[in-house]
Amino acid sequence: MRDTIKLGLILMLICAVSAGSLSYVYGVTSKIIDERKAQEVARAMAVVLPSAQDFERLSAEELADVKADARFAGVEEAYRGSTDGEVRGVVAKVLSSGYGGKIALLVGVNSDLAIEGLQVLSHSETPGLGGEITKPAFQSQFAGKGSSGPLAVNKDGGEIVAISSATISSRAVVAGVNTVRDLAAALGVGGGAGR
């Protein structure tokens, strides 16, 4: 009986030391991980909106009015991009429904409502078909477009060339881009006010 109590106390001591060590390591590394994630997000935003240097996340209050509009249901987060205090555009993470599920996009729209950049963050589209939405050849079509109105794929009379046999995926990306473009206009960013 005595040996059982002794072994139980030793085991409890080992568990307490292990838990304390894990807690300490988590406390130290979580700050570093959060900083790196913030740097990755800033780099991604700088890629999709290169005309801006500083990015400020829009608060829930700022997004509340526009989020009430069903068109913006897929917007997960949005940032106002600026340089030297002058607003240059909006960057938003948006979810759009593709063939294989949700497609997460990061889209940068400048103050003229033109698309500056686009990144596919995640998707479940068919490799070799809808998965082609990640290719620079497809994404580069969006650059500089959108200032004259919403975009559409060529099969719908637009200027974005849809991926062959992956029209649903192509339309989903276009829909996500248009959502962010409309969000920028609704927020009154630059020349987007009143459009």
Would you mind describing this structure in some detail?
This protein is of the alpha+beta class and 195 residues long. The protein is 41% helix and 22% strand. The chain is built from 4 helices and 5 strands. Strands 1-2-3-4-5 form a 5-stranded antiparallel sheet, with helices on both faces. A hairpin with a 4-residue loop joins strand 4 and strand 5. The radius of gyration is 23 Å and the shape is elongated. The model has no long low-confidence stretch (mean pLDDT 88).
What's the structural blueprint in terms of helices and strands?
Blueprint: H1 2-48, E1 54-57, H2 60-67, E2 75-83, E3 86-97, E4 102-110, E5 115-122, H3 136-139, H4 167-186
Antiparallel strand pairs: 1-2, 2-3, 3-4, 4-5
Q: What level of helicity do the residues show?
A: 40-55%
Kindly estimate the percentage of residues that lie in beta strands according to DSSP. Answer: 15-25%
Mean pLDDT: 88
Sheet of most strands:
5 strands, antiparallel
Q: DSSP helix count?
A: 4
Given the C-alpha coordinates, what overall shape results?
Answer: elongated
As residue ranges, the low-confidence spans are: none
String of helices and strands: HEHEEEEHH
Radius of gyration: 23 Å
How far apart are the termini? Answer: 82 Å
What is the SS-derived class? alpha+beta
The oligomeric status of these chains comes to: single chain
Please give the order of strands in the largest beta sheet.
1-2-3-4-5
Total strands: the figure is: 5
